[in-house]
Amino acid sequence: MPDIAGFIANFNTAVDFQEQRELSGGTLLADLPEWDSLAALGVIIMFDTEYGLTVTGNDLKKCTSVQDVFALVESKGK
Amino acid sequence: MGYAAIRNVRYRGLASCVPKNVVSNLDCAEQIKSERQRLVRNIGIEKRRICYPWQCFSDLAVAAAEKLLADLNWAPEEVDALVVVTQSPDYLIPATAIIIQDRLKLKTSIPAFDINLGCSGYPYGLYILGSMMSSGDIKKGLVLIGDKCASLKDPLFSDCGTATALEYDSDAPVMHFDLNSDGSGYRAIMLPVGGHRRPTKFHHFIPEQGESGARLPVDLVLDGTAVLNFSITQVPPAVRRLCESSAIEIGNVDYFVFHQANRMINETIRKKLGLVAEKTPSTLADFGNTSSASIPLTMTQRIRGELVTMPRRLLLCGFGIGLSWAGCILETEGICMPELLEV
Q: Is the pTM of this model over 0.90?
């Protein structure tokens, strides 16, 4: 089972933040200016290449926090 | 079907033409520079070519065809078939190919028709014209491929027209194809207004609130996440399947020329197939996503020197709007290939 620290490192790279950000599971996506359609593409690629999972745009729209996105690793992996 | 082989048809030449008008995605107000740099870094597209207001796709394609015919030393009356693959016709009707028959002064005793395909269009165009020619009734054929799809509203698309010449030759190497369609994803890239299902009305020019800001109902709809998932899920297995069906080892292909979608999609496909960057030439940075013309444009701009002088085995793969995806494996040798034209 992937740990959230490793996931957040991957998430950081995938979103390509313009400024360094301290993220935790509780970070709200709405508070991240870079959480946009480009970030969604990066995160979908991350799921595909890092975890071998297919995540859709609708899956991501339902997420409100970084923890919600991380939870997709488990729910999609079942 | 899926796999198909075409025999007796030689890939003779290719010309690509773009508008002279260059726009940069980094040409923007200072306040949004950093945001634009992030966009360019991720989609890999800095410059694009946009038709002048008076130019159509057909103007680019005709310029390419005239140059190709001249360099091949083919008289217009020698051409026996004309196929046009575009989603940017001069008019809704009649077909652009028939108008181009006259513009190129080709004889009237030829078939000329349009095919409505976008990003997957190059392998399809070769397949359709090649199929028509393999029996030997048609000796020389042209397929004109590309689109006028650029707009200042989006940072992806760019304009280009191309002309490819095929010739009947019983000694030609076999061309291998893998052709696929999935209409369940038609909403992923579409112009929802302007066809017979939803004819254009005045209110379609009034902005409405979309998920990513205001948009006009007549504008292109692009579901980026759906296109991404389709591309990275379908393209790598299709490439492997084509190689298996053709009995050609993936390591024995000289170049893989993919449709230039955006850097994120193309890099993911490349990595999933385990290909080195040197084998997957790209024109994204300088020309953006030129729809069905992106494969021939990339051949012209990145590997022309080798294609005109030595034998090469190419795997070409287009994917996108439809949803539609198609690949082909070609063996080329000393093809006629003028330098990129600009009009």
A: yes
Instruction: Tell me what pLDDT residue A1 has.
Output: 67
Structural domains of chain B, count = 1
ipTM of the modeled complex? 0.92
CATH number for the domain that contains residue B3: 3.40.47.10
Instruction: Write out chain B residues lying below 8 Å of A48, CB-based.
Output: 232-233, 268
CB contact under 8 A, B232 and A34: no
For chain B, list residues with pLDDT below 70.
Answer: none
What is the C-alpha to C-alpha distance for residues B295 and B308, in angstroms, rounded to an integer?
16
Per DSSP, chain A holds a count of helices (H) and strands (E) of 4, 0
